[in-house]
Design brief:
50% of the residues lie in helices and 17% in strands. It has 295 residues and is an alpha/beta fold. Strand 3, helix 8 and strand 4 (162-165) form a beta-alpha-beta unit.
Length: 295
């Protein structure tokens, strides 16, 4: 339960301190976590080696890893501040590229999956969507203890976002939402269920979730890769890609083709801002047993 009480205390402080002080503390906290969290440091460095490639120097790798820790710390500040910031106020700080792609797909009434990765401020995507009067259901990882999960849901759902943990009942809720013309938010870069399928990701295969593409094919929903990028000065950008031209027939070949389409969109954005990709567990199977030395 210590994590729950830590989150409660942090949220209270963030909601009562000037935002500049909170961001300054996050800048320092990200550096401390980079120095002290050995397991997360090894994992993020291992992941970023795949992104940056063998030609990248150690200095570039260290800067990207430090940036990832700071991005994650800033995201916590933003999450704790959700009750204080209306969706419209958030949108006023955000440059949105091609919102019509989401709005047109939503207006078509066939369901929409807004799919992202753990990158930049991914909470921004679903919070800002409320300003467009687009209701969103998000599938999220179940945190432990339950009290912590409930508190995070309480924060993130203050402006209308619905959240359900990844579980068997979540699939039924997802299908019902999409077939009813609703919008879902999902991520495509972490295999939290253990049922991921091998997919080429940068330089090697990784087990990645097939849920976003499989749900889109099963329900006829549009699948839109979407990314929220952090900018200096607590400003943001949201990029809505074109709906993916999925192969709609069932079968493993079509599923593999669709997963690759989706991951290629993620690769392009991660390569532009590797310091904003914040996955602190090893993604590639060959890295799980022996993460590389980082010190």
């Amino acid at each position: 339960m210590w994590r729950y009480w830590l989150f409660r205390a942090a949220a209270w402080l963030v909601q009562h301190l000037p935002v500049s002080v909170c961001y300054g503390a996050a800048w320092l906290g990200g550096w401390l976590a980079y120095r002290l969290a050995a397991g997360a440091h090894a994992a993020i460095t291992s992941n970023l080696r795949h992104v940056l490639g063998p030609e990248a120097g150690e200095q570039a790798l260290r800067l990207a890893a430090l940036g990832a820790f700071r991005t994650s710390a800033y995201n916590y500040i933003d999450m704790f501040r959700i009750p204080l910031v209306s969706p419209q106020a958030l949108l006023n700080r955000t440059t949105v590229h091609h919102p019509e792609r989401l709005l047109e797909a939503f207006g078509a009434g066939n369901g929409v999956i807004v799919c992202t990765v753990h990158f930049g401020n991914f909470d921004l995507l679903v919070q800002a969507s409320q300003a467009y009067n687009v209701p969103v259901l998000a599938l999220v990882e179940q945190l432990q203890p339950q009290a912590l999960f409930d508190f995070v849901v309480h924060l993130r759902s203050r402006h209308g976002l619905r959240m359900v943990p990844v579980a068997p009942r979540a699939l039924r809720e997802a299908i019902r939402t999409l077939r009813g013309g609703g919008v879902m938010a999902m991520t495509a870069d972490r295999d939290v269920t253990g049922h991921g399928l091998p997919t080429r990701f940068f330089d090697a295969d990784a087990n990645l979730p097939s849920g976003p593409v499989d749900l889109a094919v099963a329900t006829g929903a549009a699948l839109i890769p979407t990314f929220g990028v952090r900018l200096p000065g607590r400003r943001y950008e949201i990029f809505f890609d074109e709906p993916l031209p999925l192969r709609r027939e069932p079968g493993p070949d079509a599923s593999a083709y669709n997963r690759r389409l989706l991951i290629a969109a993620a690769e392009r954005m991660i390569a532009l801002h590797p310091e904003q990709w914040i996955v602190f567990t090893p993604i590639w199977q060959q890295d799980l047993a022996s993460p590389p030395e980082t010190r």
